[in-house]
Each structure stands twice: as C-alpha cells, then as structure tokens.
Amino acid sequence: MISLSSYLIVSFALFLCGIVVIIARKNIIAMLLGMELILNAGALNFAAYTRFVNQNLDGHVMSLFIIIIAAAEAAVGLAIVIRFFQIKESIHIDDAVELQS
Amino acid sequence: MNYTVSSIAPIVLLPFFAFVINAFLARKGGKATVAAVFLACAAIAGSSIYAIRIFNDFVFGNYSADYNIHKIFTWFDLNGGGQTFTVNMGVYIDNMTAVMLLMVTVVATMIHIFSTWYMHHDMNYGRNGRFFVYMSLFTSAMLGLVLSDNLFSLFIFWELMGFCSYSLIGHYYEKEKTGDANVKAFMTTRIGDVFFLLGIVAIWNQIGSVAYVDIYRAIAEGIFTNVDNNVMGVSLAAFSGVCIFLGTIGKSAQFPLNVWLPDAMNGPTPCSALIHAATMVAAGVYLSLRIYPILEAGHLTYFVAVIGGITALGAATIALVQTDFKAVLAFSTISQLGYMVLGVGVGSYNAAFMHLITHAIFKACLFLAAGSVIHGIHLQEMPRMGGLKNKMKFTWIAMWCCTLAIAGVPFFSGFVSKDRILGDALVMATYNAKWWIPTILGFAGAFLTAFYMCRMMFLAFHGTPRDQEAYDHCHEEKLSWNRNIPLLFLSVFTLGVWFAGSLTGQGFVKLGSKDGKYEWFKTLIQKPKVEKFVDYQRQPWGSTDIKSTQTFPTAKYDNTYGLSEEAAHHVHVVHYWGAGLSVIIAFSGIFLAFLMYIKGSVNPGWWVNSFNKYYRTLQNGYFMDHLYIKGFIQKGLLPFNNLLARFDMGVYDRYGVDGWAGVTKYIMGVAKWFDNLFVDQIMVDGTGASVKVFNVILRTIQSGKIQFYIIIIVLVLLGYVLAL
Amino acid sequence: MFLDTMFLLSALATLGGALMVVMSKNLMHACMYLLLSLFGVAGLYATLGADFLAATQLVVYAGGVVILMLFAIMLTGGVEEFVNKFGINKIPSMGTTKTYTIGAIVSLIFSFVILKTLSPLFKNYSQADLPPMESTVEDIGVLLVTDHALAFEISSVLLLGALIGAAVISRPRKINGGSK
User: Fold this and answer.
1) Tally of domains within chain C
2) What pLDDT band is residue B520 in, cutting at 50, 70 and 90?
3) C94 and C150 housed in the same domain
4) Which residues in chain C have Cβ-Cβ distances shorter than 8 Å to B719?
5) Pairing outcome for strands B539-540 and B69-77
6) Which residues in chain C are contacts of B718 at CB distance < 8 A?
7) Do C67 and C139 belong together in one domain?
C-alpha cells in the first residue's frame, strides 16, 4: 500500500509548507522554522529513495549531513537573530535594511 | 714609463674634479671658499706633476721625433644593418702634446697662484671663489683639448673653453661693458666654430673618422685631394682646411674676427692671462698646427700666411696708440698670434709652435705684471702712470724681461721663435715673389712690436710721475710669495736658452747641453709625415705603450733641415740675413721709443696732431667694431632680419597660420553640429534615458526583501519551465 | 499492516505539524508544532528502516534545534512595533491574509513547476519486493569513515566553525564605540 510516491507526496507537502512559511511570515525566527521544514523534506526524500531504489545507505549519509548542516545553520542563524535583536530591538525582516540603500 | 689611464687621465680629471667639487663648495663662503681656492690650486699643481712626468719621458727619456702614444677606446658604437659607425675617443700624445701639456699646466699653475693674491680682495676670492671654479674648468678643458686624438672631441673641449671664457670675461657682471664683452667674445668665436664644425662634418663624410691619424693617412692616400671627393667645387682638403682654419681665426682672433679679444680684457687680469696665453687663443694655433697637412694639401698656406701677416701688422699698429695698459697687451696678443699663424703659413712648423710656447710664457707674465700694476695703482690709463719702477721693483724686472722677449731682443725667447718665423718667411720670399707680402708685413710688425712694448714700459715705469696723486696712492710692492713667485718664475723662462739649447737660438753656442739635446725643440717638433700613418696601428686602452714594442731612433739635430746641401746653404744664408734684420729692427724700435718717451727728442704729440685722422683710426682699431655694427649688422643683418620678420608676419602668419585657423574653424563648426546632434543628443542623452528606464525596472526588483527575491526566483523558474 | 499504520500516523503528524506551523499566530506554538512535525519525520524515517536517521533526527532536532529556537524566541520577545522609522505601517510579523495569499500562489506555482519538470522522471516503486529491514548503524559508521570520510571531516570543521561563529556573533558588545 505504501510506496515511494506516498513518501514523496508527504515530502512535497512539507516542502510547500516551508515555502509558504518563508514567504508569508515576516518574523525571522518563523522563517527559520520554514527553513527547517524544507530541509527535512529534502532529507526525507534521500531516505525514501535509499529505501526504495538502491538500498546502499549513501542516501542515509546524505540525510545525516543535511541534519548536521541544518543544526549548524540554526545555530548561526539564531545567533545572528539575537545579535540583530540586540541592535535593532526587533526581529522583523523588513527592519534589516542597512545594506539596502 | 707606462701610459695607462692612471698616468694620463688625472691631467684632465684633477682640475675637472676640482671644478665639480668647488662648484658646490666655493659658494659657501668663509673657510669653505678658502678650501676651494686651495683645492683648485692643488688640483692644477697635481695635474702639472703628471704633465712633467710625460714631458720627462718624451724629452729626456725617449727623445725621438716619431715617438707617440695613441690610446683609443670606443665611445659609442652604432653598428647595424651593414653600416659601420663607431665613434672612438682617445688620447694622442706626441712631442707637441707633451710640450703643450707642460706649458699649459705650469702657466695655469702660476696664474692660479697669482690669482690667490689678485682676487683676494674681490669679494672673498673672486665672488666667493666663482672665479676659481671657472678657472679649473677652463684649464681642464684646455688640457682635454690638447690630449684629444680627434677633431670631434677637440671640438667638444673647444666649445667648453668658449663657455668658460664667456663666464670669466663676464666676471664683473655688474658692469654693462663686461656683459657686452663676454657676449661679443662668445658670438664672435661662434662664427668660426660653425665653420669648424662644418669642416669636421665634411671630413667625417668622406673618411668616416676625424682622428688625426686617420686624417693624415687619408692625406697620404690622396683622399683629400681626389677629384671625386670635391666639396662645392673645391677639393676636400681646401674646403675642410678653410673651414677648420676659420675656427682658428675665430678662436685665435685673427684678422676678420679679431674684435673680441681686446674686449676680453674686461675680465679680471689673471683670466686675461689665461685666455691670452695658455688656453683659449693657444688652442686655435694648436689646431692649425694639427691640421697643417690639410692646409698644405689644400694649397692654403699662402692664404694662412697673409691672414697672419695682416693680423700681425694691423694689431701692432693699433697697439701703437692705445693708452689703456691692458689694451696694449691685448693688441700685442693679437699681433703675436698673427706671427704664429704666419709661421704656420710659411711652413715654419716648429717655430710657430715654439712661438706659441714662448708667447704663452711671456704673455702670461706680462698680464700678471699688468695685474700687479693695476692692483697697485688702481687705474689702467698709461698717461697717468710713470715712474712706477721705484715702487714695484719685481714687477718692473719681470716686465722688462717679457718686453725684451716680445720685442725680439737676442738671448730672449721671443727672438728665438719670432726670428725663426721671419727667417722662414724670408726664405719663402726668395723662392717666390708673392711671399714678399706676408714677409714685409711680418717685419714691419716686428718693428712696431718693439716700439709699442717699450713705449708701454717707458710710459708706465720710467720717467717722472705724471699723476702725482695716483702715484702717491700707489701701494709699495710688498714681498708676497703668491704675487712675486709666479712673476719671477715665468720671467726666468723668457730666456731663449731653454728653447734653443743655445743663447742666441741660431746654433752658435752649445751652452751646457749635450750634443743629443742640442736644439731639442727643433729636433723633436716636426711636421707630421703623413706617409708614416698609412699602416698605423691603434692601441686600445690597457695595452702597453708603443715604446715597449717598438724602438725609435733617437732624433738628431739636422742642420740641413732635410734639404739638399745647396738649398740648406741658401736657407742658412737667408736665416743669417733674417736674424740680422730682426735684431736691427728690434733695436731701432726700442731706440725710437727711447727717443720719444725718455729723451723727448721726438715729440709724440706732434705726430698725433699731424696725423690726427690716422691716429683716430688706429685708436678705434680701424673702426672694425664700427664696421661690423654699422655695416654688417645694421645694413646687412637687420634688414635681412626685418625682411624675414615681414615674411613671417605677412605671409606665413597671415596665410599659413591664420588661414589654417579658418579651415580649422569651419571643420570645427561641422564637428560641433555633429557633436550636438548625434553624440550629445542621441548617444549621451540616449544612454542616460535608457539607464533611467532600466533603473525604474531594476529598482523595483532590488527591493532588499528576501521574500520578494524568493517569489522572483519561483517566477523565473516558471518562465524557464514554460519556455522549455 | 503495522508499517502502513505507522506511516499514516507519522505522515499525519508531519503534515499536521507543518500546517500548524503555517497557520499558528503564536510563534511559541509554531515552534511546538514544528517539534511535532519533526517527530513525524522521525517516524517516517523509522518506517523507511532508517533507524539511525530517526534517532539522529530526534536527538538533533528535538534535543538541539528546537530547544535553541525556543531560547531564541524567548530572548527576542518584546513589544512589537507596527510602524517603521519612515512612519509606514509594517506588515505584522506573523503575516496577514495578503501575505498568505501570496505564499499560497507562489507555492502553487512552485508545485506546478516541480510537477511539470519532475513527473516525467517519476517511476513508482512498490513495497512488495523490498528486502527486510536491518540495522543500518554499523554500515553507516563504516561508510562515514571510508567513502564519505572527507565530507565527514568537513562537516566536523563546519560544526566547529558554526559553534565558534555563533558564540562570537551573539557575544554582547557595546553598541556605541568601545567595541573590541
């Protein structure tokens, strides 16, 4: 009953949710949450293809690296957010306009 | 003796380095200036030591007429494309160079020493030692000229001396007269220099080198007289000979271009001594001696002799009536230079050169003595002098020695050299009647020389003081070494025995000289034998000198001048006549001066009044300055100049420059229209407008909002996919 | 059957959590729903036989990232201003209907793009002929130190850099001058 397509559909839905979050929200942390969703969708695809197509565990290793990178990105991103908040007293994405003009 | 860089180069380089150092050191004033003056004197003295070494080697060591040292190095090399163009510089030393080096360095040393006394009060050694700076360069240039082995480097030093004489004559720059005098000296010699350069170019064009040895070889091979090499219808020898001799005329103040030398006495007296004796004017005669084979090959000797004779007599007549102390000496210099050129013309090669040397010594001494007198009495007008012998004993003695020498009294050097020139002229006259003209000119000049020099002496030193006030203010001569030693040292060498090896110069007595050194001057200085240079081998620097590889026969005094016995006898007889005539003429000149100015039995005033017109002519130097200014410059050059100016303004400016401006204006109008319409309105403004349009679009995209970027990414992806 | 049930539950948790992340008006709540979604993804990993991945997912995300997010949310809380420095009304930080509409349109476009480009490549694989699931920990360990050793090392350096960078960036400093 469950097949590759069912995992891909879940992954795809997850990805679209991430996209919507990133576009619709103006809060930087909320956008980071959307990023996590997108990364998870990608990692899930790797695992699904490993299971159903070639079974050689390389996909698992890739997923592992994605998780690692997501963790690092979350750490640095949140540090930037905190720093930004210290300076601007805000985490609104439209306040980060120093480089714009 | 080994001739290497270190034994030859210091002769030139010591004064030159003194010049370079003093140029910065001397102007500091105070002790620095004293040090600079000392350095200048030490440099020229050191240079004279090197010159004495060379002289010693040539005259006491080797003693051969053929001995020479020729060292060359490549100055620059432009070979390429099958063309050979190598310019060599080098050093050529033969007996003449060795004697010349000794004379220049020793006389210059004496003048330097005298200058330390003379220029001491002129603003701290001559405008803070500026005088000595130029003196060093002047001497250095002269020594370089003497050592040069080719006409081109000789010309370089020649011009350098022209510049130095310009600077030294204009030493008292605050006087308008000196400013005119130095420009006059510079420009007048320039006329000759232009022709000199033309002659050099003509020679270079034909034989590809201007080294003396190459010129001599080319003469021996007949290149100079070959019809194929004619320049402007005359043979190369005649053309280049005239051109180079015009350089001599300018530099040695011969007849048409003699006007600068009397004005040159506006400089300080020691610089006059240097110019009139050792360096400047001597260079011209030295050059004409070097190119003597060209003059001979071009059949120019008669022309040269006539120029010399005219100069000798003309300047002597002018000197008769001058009242300025230094002016008499200046015109006597011109006159004596005329004798040298006459000597070159009549083929009396060694006598002309000997007269150059002897004249350098006694004229330097005369000018230094004149400086001593002027410095003492503070005026130059002879009619206000008189009786100075009581106040200036040493100057009086030195000046009498020189006066007797220049007058041609036996036992003095002037007799030895000048008499030999006149004797040779007389020999030429006996062969060919046309030579009587320069001969008579020469003898007449000799008579006048004796007269005007003794007139000067009697007026200045003898008799009673005519201006008692000036006499009383005249300083008593004190015994100061840097004033009297140069005078006495130079006056010792006015004796003829140094040059002839005998007292009379005619070979009557062999006084203290061995047979080998008898008549050394005549034995060593001989006309260049051009055949000798046909297979001449050059020596680059660093090789050993020719003495170690080749032995020359020791030169012997040839009593027959290399002629047949009959001809030699004839020459001897004529020489005896000539010598006798010279002596008679000299003493009659002195006697006439004695009658006029001591005894008073002949009243000079009567002569002046009777021949006032001629007197004024002579006083103004035959109105040559007047002629040049009124005649050549105002009648010839100025109208020509105006014509050229009118052509320049009327034709070239109006139609050339202004016409071209009109064309440019029209083109500019077209260009302006094009520029406004196409470049400005369409291209420049169009660029701006397009940038403006795209700016609106891109500014909207570049909002800085991340989410908007994501939307755009998605939209572009959509477009991409749809396009596929 | 058990796998099917597990898959459905996990997918439900995942998509439900993700939707609540999208919809929630409270950031703290959104973070909690993200945690739920991540748990669901871990369950999906489990149904795929990726036991090590599922464990890592739980440990890293639930134990690390989400806690970090929570702290960041708590550290940056405050009164939200609705007017920027130019005096223009700001979009509220949690979004409005308009932004959600735009997001929905964009996601639809994106789904269209992806389906259009990737569906021709799609080939379905069924559950039927799969090998039984085994423990993957040992094999992944071997792979990490053999085939993927370089990536492994680089990722360790990356983590170190992220650690130091995060510490340096968020270090409190004086705002006006005097910064070291």
Assistant:
1) 2
2) confident
3) no
4) none
5) parallel
6) 109, 112-113
7) no
